[in-house]
Amino acid sequence: MPTQNIIIDCDTGVDDALALLVALRAPRCNVLGITCVGGNVPLAKVVRNTLVMGEHAHRNVPTYQGAARPLLAPPVTAEYAHGSDGLGDIGFPEPQRSPAKEHAVDFLIRSYMETPDELPRELPLLLTLAPLTNIALALLREPQLEERIPHIVMMAGGITGGNTTAAAEFNVYVDPEAADIVFRSRIPKTMVSLEPIRDGAILNETEVAQIETGPGPWCWAMGRLLRKNLTRWEELSGRPHPISPPDLAAAAVALEPGMATVEQRHVAIETRGEHTRGMTLVDNRQFRHLASDAMPPNVAVVTAINTARFQALVLDAMLGNS
Ligand code: RIB
Ligand code: CA
Q1: In the 8-state DSSP scheme, what is residue 261?
Q2: What is the pLDDT of residues 154-207, one digit of tens each?
Q3: Which pTM was predicted?
Q4: Which residues' Cβ are closer than 6 Å to ligand 1?
Q5: What pLDDT is stored for residue 282 in this prediction?
Q6: What percent of the chain has pLDDT over 90?
Q7: 131 is in which domain, residue-wise?
Q8: Ligand 2: distance of its center to the CA of 169 in Å?
Q9: Is the distance from CB of 120 to CB of 220 less than 8 angstroms?
Q10: The CATH number of the domain where 313 resides is what?
Q11: Which of 10, 12, 15 to mutate to test the pocket of ligand 1 (most atoms within 8 A of CB)?
Q12: What is the tally of structural domains in the chain?
């Protein structure tokens, strides 16, 4: 299989960290750059956490600072879920490297607008694991990106509900205006949403124990983060409970699209609802094409993720090529 060139946009919290470790270690994945945005924790911590994961993966990938806050909405963070440092307060050492001087939005525009002979033959897939502020800013700055970005795989949204509110998933809730800009764009998009992740992209004690005992600092880092996640879920549910880190699922789908079942749907972003701001409204009506408000599909919505293939990809990235 050919190598997949990708750019990752993240707000490195625990599940972003897991996704970064897998993408950076996966045998057929070439991460050209990582852009950071404020989200789970403030931007400075996101950048620090991202650099920490790059060093634990033994991959020297340029890391760029992007937007510190959403386009219009006040910042919202999620230390309650990711710890005050964003990495579960496990105690990772400070990174040795620094971020690149170039702004993340400038890097995104440069990566897609340089002539093809200056870039790898195939323009990189864009994997987003965070609020879509950087991507929206890049599209506003350089509208031609709509014709240049070949595919965006997003951890974003919910099909039947949210996590941050009953209606909205965190990445869309934090910056609904940015999500609206991206979802309205003509760029081919895949939305990896909460429900198929919860039902399919799961890891249990068995997989976590395998990774914990694997070689390399990437296994040590991934094992500690997964163990923290597994313990938290057991405490919350009162019994052993599988974990399904959302960003890890999105990264796996980006690297192996065949593990996902998708449906082409129209998805609208609610930016005004008192109770529904940040909702991804997926049009699943049976005769939607006959409806007076019918809109053409604009997103490939993931409806299922093959658990065995997801687990195999994660274990192979961590253990297979160490
Ligand atoms: O709703 C889950 C998403 O929000 C993940 O990307 C997580 O890291 C948070 O950013
Ligand atoms: Ca994230």
Answers
A1: E
A2: 999 999 999 999 999 999 999 999 999 999 999 999 999 999 999 999 999 999
A3: 0.97
A4: 11, 13, 15-16, 39-40, 129-130, 155, 163, 169-171, 246-247
A5: 98
A6: 93
A7: 4-319
A8: 11
A9: no
A10: 3.90.245.10
A11: 15
A12: 1
